[in-house]
Design brief:
alpha+beta; 36% helix; 17 helices; nine-stranded antiparallel sheet; 606 residues; globular
Length: 606
């Protein structure tokens, strides 16, 4: 009888446990695609976390108070243990406190993880951590003079580390991290220090490879720069500003289209800036940025062919076009208000800005004609076409004023206006290239509008000249140790400049601390800025030769321009799959081309 009762009790007990588990399961939030139905205020992160082990020790202070620093370069697992072996120990004694500076090998977006061991004292220990996109930034103080700050992302902070635990902190763009022991007369046991890289885990569907390894690395670096900025939204920079700036988005979207193909970060970001900018307001407060939003809509549709998405933008597109039309006078001259802006180096060149805005508004009306015809707004399309013709007639007077003001074509801010006029068909491409854009090579180029200068050079047929500028201008950043491209760069900064991945030697210039202007002075300067990725899409479009003819890449044209290259091969993503392309310069000077494309894509050749 006792046995029977015990079995019955066990059965009742198990039943209670199962019922309790079932109840807990019913209360547990689901992680299905229907999350929004069961938990409407939740948002799942689209990114992954990857832990990166440091690759080298750049600098260390008070080494006599350290042991086992080599253990920091072993692959970790993020798990404390009771063995307490392979431990790096930092000690502080009587006010003397050790410091180390680690290099994680490449720029990342994310934070830092510290796994601790078991010192005799079980009290939390305080350390100071400083992130840097350059060695000198990681070594600097926030002093109000050198441009260093905690704006947008905390890069200089103190954190308490637990005894036998794991601590994580940080959300910024960096490659280097300095760690200082803050507490006095303590012993810190460190099992691991790892960077936390947060990014979208997406394949690089596009590719570019040639007999010039420098160009190959530039293409890849531009792709990686934009990839890091493809967070939950498409940012301008991962350290600063970490915002959706629409003008910055245009070269970024072109790079995404050439490397990754469709990605939801683009429409998500376009929608976000639209929703916070009701008409009549300028996106980001800048009239040209609202124009860039319109141009992105046109270009994104051509590359992706998503008619449903375009239709969902119809009301705002039509309203924006009508709004833009109000800023042209009776003579056909632009009168845009808001912040009149092209890029930072042209900010002190009102004539370049004026002619550039004239060109951008013409380009906007041309795009409006295309979009409105697709959206069934025929009357508005015709109105946009008429206004574009009127504006073109007004160009000679605007252009004359611009050319008259130009003293040195290679000075900062001079080439931007010419590049946009070429792209809007308002100035002869060869004339602009010969007399303005190519004068003194890459001097006067900027990381943002350099993309449009390269496109203007291509329109002039100056492909070799454009390749040389890519090698000189963007290549110089690589020569200085960059793993991503910068917010701005000027060749005049190069003489006597130290690399960004070393302690600046005495007598050398610190290219991060000593230069920069406008919003990017000194250490405030962003060293991972998506608008600087122009060569990546440019090389795919003009050297690999992929031109989108019909929306959705239903028809593409392959027109290679090898310049001084002997061969080039690569891939290009379309909504129907990947196109594989190779070009080889034969002994007779002709280019032999091979193309393998999805059956849904019609390939034209010239």
């Amino acid at each position: 009888m006792k046995i029977k009762l015990s079995v019955l009790s066990l059965f009742i007990g198990l039943s209670s446990v199962l019922l309790a588990q079932e109840k807990l399961i019913s209360l547990r939030p689901t992680l299905n695609s229907d999350d929004t139905k069961s938990c409407p205020f939740s948002q799942r992160d689209t990114r992954v976390r990857e832990y990166v082990t440091p690759v080298r020790m750049v600098w260390q202070q008070h080494t006599e108070l350290m042991t086992g620093t080599d253990f920091l370069f072993r692959q970790g697992n993020g798990q404390p243990d009771l063995v307490n072996a392979n431990i790096c120990i930092l000690r502080s004694q009587n006010g003397v406190k050790p410091s180390i500076l680690l290099d994680f090998g490449k720029e990342i977006q994310g934070g830092i993880q510290v796994v601790t061991g078991m010192p005799a004292s079980k009290k939390p220990i305080t350390v100071r951590i400083r992130f840097g996109e350059s060695v000198s930034e990681a070594m600097c103080e926030i002093d109000g003079k050198n441009g260093a700050s905690n704006d947008h992302a905390i890069r200089d902070f103190e954190m308490k580390l637990p005894w036998l635990g794991v601590a994580e902190f940080g959300n910024s763009g960096f490659r280097f991290a300095r760690i200082d022991l803050i507490d006095d007369n303590v012993e810190l046991h460190i099992k691991e220090i790892r960077a936390i890289s947060v990014y979208r885990d997406i394949p690089y569907k596009g590719s570019f490879c040639s007999n010039d390894e420098r160009l190959n690395k530039i293409w890849q670096t531009g792709a990686y720069t934009v990839h890091l900025n493809m967070q939950e939204f498409l940012w301008d920079g991962i350290k600063r500003d970490r915002l959706v700036w629409v003008g910055d988005m245009h070269p970024e979207v072109m790079t995404i289209s050439s490397v990754f193909g469709y990605n939801e970060v683009v429409p998500k970001s376009l929608n976000a800036i639209r929703d916070v900018t009701p008409l009549p307001n300028w996106m980001n407060g800048i009239s040209s940025y609202s124009i860039w939003w319109l141009l992105i809509q046109r270009d994104w549709f051509y590359y992706q062919g998503d008619r449903n998405y375009l239709n969902s933008q119809k009301d705002y597109i039509v309203g924006l076009i009508r709004f833009l039309m109000n800023f042209v006078d009776e003579k056909g001259v632009e009168k845009l208000d808001g912040m009149r802006f092209l890029d930072w180096p042209s900010s002190n060149s009102p004539e370049s800005i004026h002619v550039g805005l004239q060109a951008l508004l013409v380009m906007a009306m041309d795009a409006s004609y295309e979009l409105c015809n697709i959206l069934g707004e025929t009357e508005l399309a015709n109105e946009a076409e008429r206004l574009a013709k009127k504006m073109r007639k007004a160009v000679p007077a605007v252009r004359k004023q611009y050319l008259k003001s130009m003293k040195d074509p290679s000075a900062p801010g001079a080439k931007q206006g010419a590049a946009l006029m070429v792209l809007a068909n308002l100035m002869d491409a060869k004339e602009a290239d010969q007399h303005i854009i190519s004068v003194n090579g890459a001097h006067g180029f900027s990381t943002f509008y350099g993309y449009y200068m390269l496109k203007a050079m291509a329109k002039a047929g100056d492909y070799k000249g454009a390749l040389d500028i890519i090698r000189t201008y963007w290549g110089a950043m690589l020569d200085l140790g960059a793993t991503t491209f910068w917010e701005d760069f000027d060749l005049n900064w190069l003489p006597n400049a130290a690399r960004i991945d070393e302690i600046v030697p005495e007598g050398k210039n610190d290219i991060h601390r000593d230069f920069g202007a406008y919003c990017y002075q000194k250490f405030r300067h962003s060293f991972c800025h998506g608008w600087a990725s122009g060569p990546t899409s440019w090389l795919s479009e003009y050297v690999l030769g992929v031109q989108v003819v019909e929306p959705g890449c239903k028809v593409i044209r392959i027109v290679p321009h090898l310049g001084d290259l002997k061969w080039v091969k690569g891939t290009f993503p379309t909504p129907y799959g990947i196109i594989s392309i190779s070009h080889t310069l034969s002994d007779n000077g002709k280019i032999v081309t091979e193309v393998d494309a999805p059956s849904e894509v019609l390939v034209l050749r010239e």
